[in-house]
Design a protein that fits this description.
13 helices, binds beta-D-galactopyranose, eight-stranded parallel beta barrel, alpha+beta, Jelly Rolls, 755 residues, TIM Barrel, globular, 4 domains
């Protein structure tokens, strides 16, 4: 640690924004290369408490999070070009372990997973990269980025000092380093910062001193594999040397003061600045009103003025860099979503799901330009602050006799309030002119803004064919037999969402029967004698409480307030009506909706994650025995999606549950040549999965989000252009009795939304 090296003569520089004289940044101590390596002004990347330095030059880090795994390789160049044009000098991305180790000991860094190529594209555009390598990521991604196989490693506890866990992390990091290290800034590459672990504070209480030791072990591993040749970071709960960083909707002066009271070594880096939030099935989180069926509303999600105010406040209080989480949210293709996360990860942010700048993006671009004009003042000027007679905060940065003035006029802590119109901030540049005004710039951006329009690409309805998914009796030879239901992931290893649980029930008294799955995940269909009799009621809970019953041998630790929110999050109760006396066949289809992203969703370490049924099934209070489990759909087992042309499809009949649907459509070479985005309007569908030309588009679910309009949580699904060709096959697996007849393909041509 070089902490002792600094003599912070002006350590009180952040004591209360209103009163303090904020120390001139150029008075500060020697920068250091990384957390505990010797200082070097000419290092590719270094830092001191004021800012980061690139080749010895101070720079504000204006970064946006863009996960290469949430777009296609073909989209990466345009995403980066647009980000740069909107003023970013850095791109942050998580590196999802399960993307690169899809099977135990099978590593994949090619094609759509070609991290090296992504980094080269950044380098070619002179964009720095803030690589968030995990091993734990969170991010609403399946299993928070962990490979599902980890769950079943003998004696593992994930995210703490557990030897089986550490061994897998070490092996992966060594492999990952081969890909990453040639791209480190110290070797002329774009990777300037590396984050290890993620928001450990959320789970720290559970793992106690062992958890802290694990963080130190991670910091050491980062060094051992060479990542720490550039500065390493840990957000929200650092230990062991990496730069400690903060996340939130806003970082108030008070929060900075608290941070500084514990840390006077690191620059202030805001690693997650939220432009809005993600959606889960059945819950659309909005700060504004959205109507998916009508014109796109530019101000949906968090108001960009609130973001600008938060950024300027942070800057005024010594902020050295910020990262929008997300900058481009993108899409959770295939089965990449965490439990309950929608396929879209739009995040109502700067670049929309398809990668086009939104009004918010253009507005933030204006803010970035204004800030960059005055960057030298913010980084090297001597700053003083006063309160104006009207009660606004006035910050003035003086550099060589010229001033930049920022006036902040709002109540701190009220950024997400209902009336951002009343709040404002203005930057007056060194020439004495207003160069950014939260309100005025929005008015101008809006005036120039044209909403992009979607249009159908076919006038006649699509022609569909069907293939009925067979019920379990016809697949009995595939069944695993056991007296009690076997937990789903033991059978599927998360290679499918689906698993059948079948048995027989004896009904002695006619009438309604109560079927109870006390611990089950995630969504169930109950078939009696081959007919759908009941199903789970939506919406499901995101944080479901303890995933196993109380075990006196292992007293539960609540690490997080989210963990005690629910006690019956896995309980599925069904009333089967009008069942006649006799023996009946019971088939339960368990459908998973993604693995959890963190401990707090199950109030246990992540290796406790479970799907399907794991504590038996009760009929009228009595346990049911003698179960057959069939993992995978028949359509999956025969490879229906890849072999669509060799399947015997029938013409479309009346809607019934559990059907695969196929349609073929053509696009002319001229159409494909145009710069456009494509989506599927899933009108009329229920719940299941979508595939385009063999690629997993994602899970679909038209479940309604309760709200003023009662609209589906997600009706539109991104069809990446690079997956389209002149001859196309679209396949839907539909769990419910829903028809594909109203489904439409739509396109949005570039123009209005492009920059
Ligand atoms: C943070 C986490 C991110 C992401 C975000 C919510 O707590 O670090 O990975 O999950 O929340 O979108």
């Amino acid at each position: 640690m070089r902490l002792g090296k600094y003599n912070f003569a002006r350590r009180d520089f952040l004591k209360g924004a209103g009163a303090a004289i904020l120390g001139g940044r150029n008075l500060w101590a020697q920068p250091v290369l990384a957390s505990d390596t010797p200082g070097d002004q000419s290092a590719a990347v270094s830092f001191d408490p004021h800012s980061f330095l690139f080749n010895g030059k101070r720079k504000l880090l204006i970064s946006g999070e863009l996960h290469y795994a949430r777009s296609t390789r073909a989209m990466w160049p345009a995403l980066l070009d647009r980000s740069k044009a909107l003023g970013l000098n850095c791109i942050a991305t998580y590196v999802f372990w399960n993307l690169h180790e899809p099977e135990r000991d099978v590593y994949d860094f090619a094609g759509e997973r070609d991290l090296g190529h992504f980094l080269e594209l950044c380098k070619a555009r002179e964009i720095y990269v803030f690589l968030r390598v995990g091993p734990y990521c969170c991010a609403e991604w399946n299993y928070g980025g962990y490979p599902p196989y980890l769950r079943d490693e003998p004696n593992i506890t994930i995210r703490t000092m557990s030897p089986p866990y550490l061994a897998r992390v070490e092996k992966y990091f060594e492999r990952l380093a081969n890909e990453v290290n040639p791209h480190l800034a110290t070797r002329g590459g774009p990777v300037a910062l590396i984050q290890v672990e993620n928001e450990y504070a959320n789970v720290a209480k559970r793992y106690g001193p062992q958890g802290q030791e694990y963080l130190r072990w991670m910091a050491h591993l980062a060094k051992q594999v060479g990542f720490a040749d550039v500065p390493t970071t840990m957000c929200e709960g650092a230990a062991g040397g990496p730069i400690s960083t903060v996340n939130g909707f806003e970082i108030t002066a008070k929060r900075i003061e608290e941070f500084r009271s514990k840390n006077d070594r690191d620059p202030l880096l805001w690693t997650e600045l939220y432009p809005s939030w993600y959606d889960t099935w059945g819950v659309k989180r909005e700060t504004g009103v959205v109507d998916n069926t009508k014109e796109w509303r530019p101000l949906w999600g968090r108001d960009p003025r609130s973001m600008a105010l938060a950024i300027l406040t942070f800057l005024a209080n010594g902020g050295a860099g910020w990262n929008y989480y997300m900058w481009h949210g993108g899409t959770n293709f295939g089965r990449n979503s965490m439990y309950l996360q929608t396929t879209s990860y739009d995040f109502r942010t700067a670049l929309d799901e398809y990668g086009r700048p939104t009004l918010k993006g253009v507005y933030l671009g204006r803010l970035h330009k204004a800030i960059q004009t005055c960057e030298a003042w913010f980084l090297e000027g001597k700053v003083s602050s006063t309160v104006t007679p009207a009660g606004a905060q006035r910050f003035a940065w003086n550099l060589n006799g010229r001033e930049v003035v920022l006036t902040l006029d709002y109540e701190p802590g009220a950024l997400n309030g209902p009336d951002p119109h009343a709040k404002s901030a203005k930057i007056v540049g060194p020439e004495g002119k207003t160069i950014f005004d939260t309100q005025g710039d929005l008015v101008e951006t809006q005036a120039a803004w044209k909403a992009p329009a979607w249009e159908p690409i076919h006038s006649a309805p699509l022609q569909w064919h069907a293939w009925s998914e067979p019920m379990p009796p016809s697949r009995a030879q595939k069944a695993v037999h056991s007296s009690q239901p076997v937990e789903q992931l033991l059978l599927t290893k998360d290679h499918t969402d689906y698993c059948w649980y079948s048995t027989k029930i004896d009904v002695k008294t006619a009438g309604p029967q109560e079927l109870l799955i006390p611990y089950g995940g995630d969504f169930f269909y109950i078939y009696l004698d081959g007919k759908l009799a009941a199903q789970t009621t939506a919406p499901l809970k995101e944080d479901r409480g303890p995933i196993t019953p109380e075990d006196p041998a292992h007293p539960r630790i609540n690490a997080n307030s989210l963990e005690s929110r629910s006690t019956d999050g896995y309980r599925h109760e069904f009333n089967l009506s009008d069942v006649v006396v006799g023996t009946h066949r019971l088939d339960i289809l368990a459908t998973a909706l993604g693995m959890i992203k963190g401990d707090w969703q199950i109030a246990s370490p992540m290796n406790f994650e479970r799907k399907g049924i794991w504590e038996g099934v009760l009929l009228n209070g009595a346990q049911l025995n003698d179960w057959d489990m069939i993992p995978f759909l028949a359509g999956e087992t025969i490879g229906l999606v890849k072999q669509a042309s060799s399947i015997q499809w029938s013409t479309l009949g009346a809607p019934k549950p559990l059907c695969w649907y196929k349609t073929e459509f053509q696009l002319s070479a001229g159409t494909l040549a145009a710069d456009a985005d494509y989506r599927l309007n899933a009108a009329g569908l229920g719940k299941g999965m979508l595939f385009l030309n063999g690629h997993g588009v994602g899970r679909h679910w038209l479940v309604v989000s309760p709200g003023p309009d009662n609209l589906p949580t997600q009706q539109f699904y991104h069809l990446p252009k690079s997956w389209l060709s002149t001859e196309n096959t679209l396949i839907v697996f539909e769990e419910q009795a829903a028809s594909p007849k109203a489904v439409q393909l739509e396109r949005r041509r570039a123009g209005a939304a492009s920059i």
